[in-house]
């Protein structure tokens, strides 16, 4: 059972509490837009063949406290079993999409959503997945695997951490339906890491 006790705590630079914003079923990441709206990843569980599967949604909380679901993976992807899915003993149901990164592009008013288990990267604009890089979209065999911490760079490229036989930090340039590799950093010897925190991936300096 997943405890619905997620929240965002707003503090002063010195750490004094200002307010607490409840984010029901929230997990992993949240983003703050220019007007103060908070967008966050939320669990979205539904039934598939009598079993509970857990997808992901993007929920926004406006400065006045009103909330709305602006996107759900269920509306863009076809539920398909994958090798990464954790069973109900670990989660509230089968962990189908496993959203693990969400970033907001203020200039273009769009989200980048990473679904690690499904293997998809989605660009979400006005509640619609306008681009899907991965098995459910334009890349049947994407160049990344079990990606984490996917986020926009200032030039519109995407930096992420890919876990495969060789784990690596990789930068891609969106190229319509595809992604062109711009830069990669990996250890010289074979090294695989399946757990990676956003704190560990730093944008390269030019």
Give a structural overview.
The protein has about 210 residues and is mostly beta strands. It has no helices and 15 strands. It has strands spanning about 5-10, 15-20, 25-30, 40-50, 50-60, 65-70, 95, 100-105, 110-115, 120-125, 130-135, 150, 160, 170-175, 180-185. Strands 3, 4, 5, 6 and 7 form a five-stranded mixed sheet that branches. The protein has a four-stranded antiparallel sheet with strand order 8-9-10-11, with no helix packed on it. Strands 12-13-14-15 form a four-stranded antiparallel sheet, with no helix packed on it. β13 (about 160) and β14 form a beta hairpin. The model is unreliable at about 190-205 (pLDDT under 50).
List the helices and strands and how they pair.
Blueprint lengths: L6 E5 L5 E6 L3 E7 L5 E11 L2 E11 L5 E6 L21 E2 L3 E7 L4 E6 L4 E6 L2 E6 L14 E5 L5 E5 L5 E8 L2 E8 L21
Parallel strand pairs: 5-7
Antiparallel strand pairs: 1-2, 3-4, 4-5, 5-6, 8-9, 9-10, 10-11, 12-13, 13-14, 14-15
Unreliable segments (pLDDT under 50, ≥5 consecutive)?
A: 191-206
Q: How would you sum up the major sheet?
A: 5 strands, mixed
Order of helices and strands: EEEEEEEEEEEEEEE
Strand content: over 45%
Number of strands: 15
Give the helix proportion (percent range).
under 10%
In quaternary terms, these chains amount to single chain
Q: How many DSSP helices?
A: 0
- Given helix and strand content, the structural type is mainly beta
The average pLDDT value, as a whole number, equals 87
Radius of gyration: 17 Å
- N→C terminal distance: 45 Å
**How would the global form be characterised?**
globular
